[in-house]
Amino acid sequence: MPPTNLLLDKTAIVTGGTTGIGRAITLAFLAQGCNVAVLHLALPSDASHVATLLSQASSLPGHLALLPGDVRDPATGPALVTFALSSFPARGRLDILVSNAGICAFTPLLDITAPLYQDTVRTNLDGAFYVVQAAARQMALHQTPSGGSIIALSSVSALVGGGMQCHYTPTKAGVLSLMQSAAVALGGYGVRCNALLPGTVRTQLNGEDLEDEGKRRYMEGRIPLGRIGEPGDVAGPAVFLACDELSGYVTGAQVLVDGGLFVNLQ
Questions:
Q1: Are 66 and 36 in contact (CB under 8 A)?
Q2: Which among 188, 76, 75, 66 has a CA at the least distance from the CA of 139?
Q3: Cα torsion angle, 184, 190, 193, 194, sign
Q4: How much is the pLDDT for 87?
């Protein structure tokens, strides 16, 4: 049996928490007794994901609150922090941020349009900065040895090239760099900042690509553990980084969650 109550009564924010990796992290936090405020875009296609998330959350010890919003808007970060604190007032502070919201439209370099490039940067990098800064400002008000944990979803793509990801890989490298610099900037406040670097994980972003049996087998052949990752594979490491008792001396780190893909790239 895995340990329980690792995040009991803490308050967390997860952006992009209704689908994919963000959803898995949200459910894992709720299962550990954490109260989670989730930001989502509220697209029509997201309605069923929201409904099933609410249903799953109802049987877990933590409490869930949902806020529609767009990380690309600089005002969203502060509004999200305010929403989290008002949704779970008993705690009176923000303990954890998971900056997860992101997009990736696989596109050849020569076909990347200015709007696609700008949207990718605004969502993946600008959006991460805005929510990280807003969370950090709140966490800095409680200057303690365990001032808070900020976790940003980068990618193994931050460390390697991708021919169909020339607009995407720079943003994930930027997220990794943001966490490294934030770790230095916020260490004096007791705030830990770390990056998770998933490898190939089956989500709505790459589901269609992985339906190609040839591509899937090729990827599986490059992964030492021999399988494509699932969103839940990233949730455990997120709980580890969120928990002061487990990772209280971990900051500025990059945690690969890729089945060994990076060390086997050749």
A1: no
A2: 188
A3: positive
A4: 98
What tokens appear for 6 in the block? 């690792």
Mean pLDDT, range 12-23, rounded to an integer: 97
Alpha-carbon dihedral sign for residues 27, 29, 35, 36? negative
Whole-Å CA distances, 250 to 11, 18, 150: 20, 27, 11
End-to-end CA distance of the chain: give it in Å, rounded: 37
Taking only the tens place, the pLDDT of each residue in 41-78 is: 988 888 999 999 999 999 999 999 999 999 999 999 99
Helix (H) or strand (E) holding 67: strand 64-68
Cα separation values, 131 from 71, 242, 260, 261, Å: 7, 16, 30, 29
Q: Which residue has the tokens 């990076």?
A: 262
Three-class DSSP labels, 204-237: CCCHHHHCCHHHHHHHHHHCCCCCCECHHHHHHH
pLDDT band (50, 70, 90) for residue 209: low
Positive/negative CA dihedral, 33, 176, 237, 217: positive
pTM higher than the cut 0.85: yes
Q: What angle do CA 8, 13, 19 make, to 5 degrees?
A: 105
Residues labelled as active-site residues: 154, 168, 172
**What would the pLDDT profile of 101-158 be if each residue is shown by its tens digit?**
999 999 999 999 999 999 999 999 999 999 999 999 999 998 777 789 999 999 999 9
Structure tokens at 117: 């490039």
